[in-house]
Structure prediction request, 778 residues.
Amino acid sequence: MASGNADEIARSISTFLSSKNVPPTQAWLQNTYLPSIRLTTPVVALQKTALFRILNADLKASVVSSTATLLPPNITDPAVKDKQVRGPVTVQVLDVEDIGRSRWSQVEALEAIERGETTKGREVIRVVPDENGPESTSAPEEAKSSGPHKLQLQDASGAQVYAMELVPVKGVGLQMLIGAKLVLKDFTVARGMLLLEPRNVEVLGGKVELWDKKWRDERKQRLKQKAGMRNGG
Amino acid sequence: MTSVAGHLNSQDFEGAYKSWNGCSPDALFEAPITTYVENDKKAIATNIETQARYASVLFIWTDCDREGEHIGTEIRETALKGNRRLEVRRARFSNIERAHILSAAQSPIHIDENQANAVAARIELDLRIGASFTRMQTLTLRPLLEAHGMGEEVKVLSYGSCQFPTLGFVVERYFRVKNFVPEAYWSIKVMHLKDDIRVNFTWSRGHLFDRLAAFIIFERCLAARLARVTKVETKPTSKWKPLPLTTVELQKCGSRFLRMDSQRVMKIAEDLYTKGWISYPRTETDQFDEGIDLRSIVQKQVQGHAWGQFAQGLLDGGFNQPRAGRNNDKAHPPIHPVNFVDPPALANDEERRVHEFIVRRFLACCSQDARGSKSTVSIVYGSESFTASGLQVLERNYLDVYPYDKWTSTQQLPEFAVGETFEPTEAFMREGRTSPPGYLTEPDLIALMDANGIGTDATMAEHIAKIKGRQYVSTRPRGRVVHAEGEDGDDVFDEEPPVRGARGRGRGRGARGRGGGDNNSRGNTGADGVQEFIPTTLGVALVQG
Prediction:
């Protein structure tokens, strides 16, 4: 029967997504996902499509808020020097920052890109290489460094927290898309900041198109503001 | 045998296009061009035509670069007017040693039409772009000039395709400095006292721009309490002797070490050349040809009072083949001393200083690299790694004759063993602030022009002189360099290596019209300090439109 079929499919998709740490809410399954698919498609394909869709959706509207997915309460308490969290916790990325470079140098880099100076043939050289031989120690080339990165994360209930890379994590960086989903396990929280390392982060991927576009459009402005703020203190 | 003085021909637009109101500037891109011989070159052209009648072969010995090739075709064209049946050959040579010249004479080649045509294209582009933009910007900016009372003085705002980017660099840097927003950063410092030596360890991350992040990391280091040595290494290291001297390098060094602006340096170098003391000073070549007898040149300098002993040392076994750079214009060798001259015999102090620089540079090229030993100790403290390093200069070698480079030993590091642990004597967080880059100095500007292909070795100094002379920029002495950070000289400047952070003292305002303040546009500085370039209001208007 058609509806029995639908229930089975819904259950199998739910189980599959839970195994990926993105257990879907009934609301999302029934109202958003199922109406958009053909029940005759092979289940494996439906599962994969469901994963893709949920990774590109807002966690708050699509994933179950439970102890299996949420950040522990009071995690942002700055008085707590060190705390271990087992997880798993599923979060989405709201913001990425490179804290190894000054914001102003990042603004200048963006403006250089806007002027077209990164396209081949139109490069303007502003840093003249030193000619002192193998052991030359030039001042740090700030513009080239990348990281560590500081992220602003949000779980399915809407709770927000900051995290930073203690050790570089593949997939984390300025090329990350806003709304991308991460699963965190066995991590440390120091003074309210999550400490990320390759061994405790799994980057699931995905994004939220609308947020990502907005982030990119406003990036330069935000960097300028932050640079200005730092000036004040 | 006869000569020309640069290009024989000149180009200009025909008829109505010549006058400023005869057409709109953009029409000049399609307007017809005529080639003619300028009045001051007419005698030369006539001479060639006449001489051609009595010859059967024309042998071209112009410089073996593109411009020379083109001039060769101009000569050919003129000569053929006098004698249609003239055969034309070209000599290929890159220095004027006897053997080389004889060999070039015996194996003539043909003029390279492609290179000549490339220059012809360059000439046409320069004319069209130069004329149309000059007219356009003069007409557009006339109101601004009149507003600043310069309407009588400045009739034409000329546009040059090299001048403009040169000015552009100055303006751009000016705005970068003006718009700069300083930001606070934090870094972790570790110092350990061992064997009575204070060892300063540098954080591998350098510094972070987020206070909480730095603090958290620092706290975790403190919680770890002990640091562990992960690497102890002593490696030989060297400071390379300089490359053979090119024009651009001479100008940069002249500005940096001799405190003379590039035009002055070139003028003196040309004087030294015509008097026979140094080789031709306009060259891009930074490698010495295999055939050149360098030892005999060194031999000539043995009589020198200040460097004679070093020269003798080279001949006695210290001689080393110079490094080869990547450039060879195939027309001239690197700049080097040719005959010995006793410094007191030179005309003035400036000549002596330039001459001394050229001799010392040459001798340094023929020496050995300076050698030293670099030791590094790396530790892990908490989750972070830190490094300390020390340098021992073992052999100064070329540094003894070339005081323009510095390399000094640091304090020696105490002994550490891999795996050793210790509790650091001091560990603390320090806050700093980024500071703006400095305004461009002449060596900076030359380096940028060189890196971006603006101008040639022969013209760079001219372009700089032009933007100064036309009051597009003014120069002023740089503010004192302030190092605000601690012992290990940890200055972080949001800026590239050549510019050591000078806090541009005083607001970098564009000088009003006529050039405000100390418009010392000769740019010749005493021993006071390096000059920096500030664009004038006019200069900024030209670049920004």
About this structure: DSSP finds six helices and eight strands in chain A. Chain A has a mean pLDDT of 86. The first strand of chain A starts at residue 83 and ends at 85.
